[in-house]
Amino acid sequence: MVNEYPQVMTIAGSDSDGSAGMQADMNTFLARKVYGTSILTAAVAGNSYGIHASHALPVDFIKAEFKAIADDFKILVTKTGMLTDTKTIHAVIESYQKYDFGPLIVDPVIITKHGAMLLEQEAYETVRDELIPLATVITPNFYEAQKLVESELQNEDEIIEAAKKLQAMGAKNVVIKGEHNGDSEIVKDYVLLEDGKNFWLEDEYIDTEHINGTGDTYSACIAAEFAKGASIEEAIKIAKKYTHDAIKNEIAVGHKFGPINHWV
Ligand SMILES: Nc1ncnc2c1ncn2[C@@H]1O[C@H](COP(=O)(O)OP(=O)(O)O)[C@@H](O)[C@H]1O
Ligand SMILES: Cc1ncc(COP(=O)(O)OP(=O)(O)O)c(N)n1
């Protein structure tokens, strides 16, 4: 018997400690039982103490990766992660539109939760004007949502307004991931769907330093579940639970800010 798995793709950077970026995406794809392909955009030298160096790949090489996958695979859903700068985003958009890689889940990676910048500031506008309009789902964290809508989000009404603005920019479905700084026992993500349905996804705050790669995992899980046939709403709910369980069932890796548990 030949087993078949839905084929998905991540367009992301490699994080050398395995906790985030492409490694978190691929771990999630494996765990959620889809076959993951990968377009590498950059490589970062990271460990549980932080990111120490970063190197963007040449755009011609990125385009060659796209062609290699397009020539051989039937990709059902694609997700983006670290895209570094405007020329990388342009190469990604050009190749994504040239071939058929399915709906796009955009994780607009700007900064890690420990403060390392993964997107040049000049590229925010490119993300807003050129990438967001292609997004079936966009999944900014609290900080990224503020950067993209260019205003501080101080209460729930402002988060709801920000989600509407992101939808007006062209994203069909929006997930704004909530703050988790320990000030509240609940972490709340806000979801605004294409048809206007909206809700808060709540879970308990988990007090741990092992939360590297949570955003990558969340968006990769949405891509995987959507590829397997879930609706966007179901895929988001499954991704929230999977990410939460992976944070809760901590593993002992690294000396500082460790990875989450993709085996969960
Ligand atoms: N300490 C925590 N306790 C509970 N949920 C968390 C915690 N940290 C992150 N999450 C959840 O993980 C998911 C990813 O969010 P986040 O960590 O903000 O993304 P990013 O990695 O893009 O910054 C969200 O659903 C968020 O609510
Ligand atoms: C190569 C690379 N890409 C993305 C990240 C950040 O991952 P994300 O899950 O969005 O954020 P953290 O939870 O890791 O802060 C990364 N570190 N490396």
Automatic annotation (TrEMBL):
It is an enzyme of class 2 (transferase). GO terms for molecular function: ATP binding; hydroxymethylpyrimidine kinase activity; phosphomethylpyrimidine kinase activity. GO terms for cellular component: cytosol. Keywords: ATP-binding, Kinase, Nucleotide-binding, Thiamine biosynthesis, Transferase. InterPro entries: HMP/HMP-P_kinase_dom, PM/HMP-P_kinase-1, Ribokinase-like. One of its GO terms (biological process) is thiamine biosynthetic process. Residues 15-261 form the Pyridoxamine kinase/Phosphomethylpyrimidine kinase domain. Pathway: Cofactor biosynthesis; thiamine diphosphate biosynthesis; 4-amino-2-methyl-5-diphosphomethylpyrimidine from 5-amino-1-(5-phospho-D-ribosyl)imidazole: step 2/3; Cofactor biosynthesis; thiamine diphosphate biosynthesis; 4-amino-2-methyl-5-diphosphomethylpyrimidine from 5-amino-1-(5-phospho-D-ribosyl)imidazole: step 3/3. Its EC number is 2.7.1.49, 2.7.4.7. It comes from Ligilactobacillus salivarius (strain UCC118) (Lactobacillus salivarius). CDD domains: HMPP_kinase. The gene is thiD. This is Hydroxymethylpyrimidine/phosphomethylpyrimidine kinase.
